[in-house]
Specification:
The complex is a heterotrimer of chains A (115), B (80) and C (240).
Chain A: H1 4-21, H2 26-47, H3 71-102, H4 107-113
Chain B: H1 3-21, H2 25-45, H3 49-74
Chain C: H1 3-25, H2 37-50, H3 55-63, H4 65-86, H5 103-111, H6 113-125, H7 134-151, H8 154-160, H9 163-186, H10 210-237
Helix pairs in contact in C: 3-4, 4-9, 4-10, 5-7, 6-7, 7-8, 7-10, 9-10
Classes of the chains: A mainly alpha (115), B mainly alpha (80), C mainly alpha (240).
């Protein structure tokens, strides 16, 4: 049972990868890439968790003696999420350019029509 | 592991599968919004409120906006 | 490659990857039993060393500030690449009259512009006291501006966000982080070391250079998101 969060990360990674491989629309592909990215967030946070501890925010009233989960993995993950959506926007700009030049956004059709 | 974490993990697993198997990109954007919500709940249950805020604003606000704008562009006149 | 070749490659390499993942993930410590020392030490000393109450923000902007600088550069490069791809020399034609006609959408949407921007600025400003920060709060601030387009008029949105201001804001946001780092070097410390006075823990005036980096990051993220959506909106508005 304690293996379940890691299994979730692996499951999300493979589900996203399956979506990318069998995609028929480039925007669908970019969204599946987002699902694959989210598997790394789940893995990072699952590694840093400690049972029974609280979040690493120590405003007045929260005793430090309770202890907290690991803050370093949270710092890595939160910048990652925002930058991930920016890179997805860059991929969408590429998709728009492909559509302007080739008229289609189906990966298989693009391969058939290439000159 | 508390039961809330089990529920959150199950919802995220099912949500990921739902996002991938929705083939129409317009519907997939809506399912992505719900998947982001489930993911934010999972992050809160893992005691990470900063990451949950980040995931919530990104997948409810920024991601649907850019995906819907790109899809609106792709629905225009086809160029050859 | 063709579709069947792609699927065959995925099936084959997927099996190998799955085996490696199972072998690797079962070697991790059990869930809830984190072993690393760096996190525990930071939890204990960050409050007294930097006078912050949100340890994650202290790590993002101080202990791991160099990684944040790299992430800012990724943000900047992605925005620049989108502008390179999609921005054309659109001459100053008549801007299209595109507006939302539904009264309900306009009433609710436009009345939420102010509260959304204030909420975003609040989340940015209190980043090192409570959960929040530049990355999290920059996006609601940008959303408040985009709400003018989504629930109102396109012309009002263009009037509220001139392009030179967005470009300048993005550049200033990222350059401030580098400038603070170099200023720390000139003040005799390391690059991006916290060299300012640390203030009172729990108030807004605390933690040295962390508020400055926080606000610079919020500015950069806000400008980046508005610029990205701006390019896409322009593509939709001028379809040629």
């Amino acid at each position: 049972m304690s293996f379940l969060p890691y299994a979730l990360a692996g499951w999300l990674f493979f589900v996203g990868l399956y979506g990318i491989v069998t995609s028929r629309h480039l925007v669908h592909l970019v969204i599946c890439l987002g699902v694959t990215q989210s598997s790394t967030y789940v893995l990072l946070l699952a590694i840093g968790y400690r049972t029974g501890k609280k979040a690493p925010i120590f405003t007045s009233g929260v005793p430090v003696k309770v202890g907290a989960v690991d803050p370093v993995v949270q710092a890595l993950t939160l910048t990652d999420i925002v930058v991930g959506v920016t890179v997805a926007a860059l991929l969408l700009a590429l998709v728009i350019e492909i559509w302007k030049r080739a008229g289609t956004v189906d990966p298989d059709e693009l391969r058939r029509n290439r000159t | 592991m508390i039961p809330l974490q089990l529920v959150a993990i199950t919802l995220v697993g099912l949500g990921g599968l739902a996002v991938v198997t929705t083939r129409d990109p317009l519907r997939q954007v809506l399912v992505l919004g719900l998947y982001g919500l489930a993911l934010a709940v999972l992050f809160v249950v893992f005691q990470a409120p900063d990451v949950a805020i980040s995931e919530l604003v990104v997948s409810s606000v920024a991601a649907p906006f850019i995906f819907l704008a790109a899809l609106a562009k792709l629905r225009g006149r086809r160029r050859e | 490659m063709s579709r069947t070749a792609r699927l065959a490659l995925f099936a084959g390499s997927g099996l190998v990857l799955a085996a490696l993942l199972v072998w690797g993930l079962t070697g991790l410590p059990a869930f809830g039993d984190f072993q690393g020392e760096y996190g525990w030490i930071l939890n204990d000393v960050a409050g007294s060393e930097r006078h912050v109450t949100n340890v994650v923000s202290a790590i993002v902007f101080d202990y791991r500030g160099f990684d944040t600088l790299g992430e800012e550069f990724i943000l900047f490069a992605a925005v620049m690449a989108v502008a390179l791809l999609l921005r054309e020399a659109r001459d100053e034609r008549e801007r299209p009259r595109d507006e939302v006609r539904s009264e309900a959408v306009r009433a609710v949407g436009l009345s939420l512009v102010g509260p959304t921007v204030v909420l975003g600025l609040f989340v940015i400003a209190h980043g090192y006291l409570t959960p929040g920060g530049g990355f999290q709060g920059g996006i609601p601030t940008a959303a408040g501006l985009l709400l003018v387009y989504a629930a109102g008029r396109y012309r009002a949105y263009r009037a509220a966000s001139p392009q030179w201001l967005l470009d300048a804001a993005e550049g200033v946001g990222v350059a401030t982080i580098v400038a603070v780092g170099i200023a720390a070097l000139l003040a005799g410390g390391l690059f991006l070391e916290n060299v300012l006075d640390l203030g009172t823990k729990g108030t807004l005036a605390s933690s040295g250079t962390i508020p400055i980096l926080n606000i610079a990051t919020g500015l950069a993220v806000t400008a980046a998101v508005v610029l990205l959506c701006h390019e896409f909106i322009e593509e939709v508005m001028y379809p040629e």
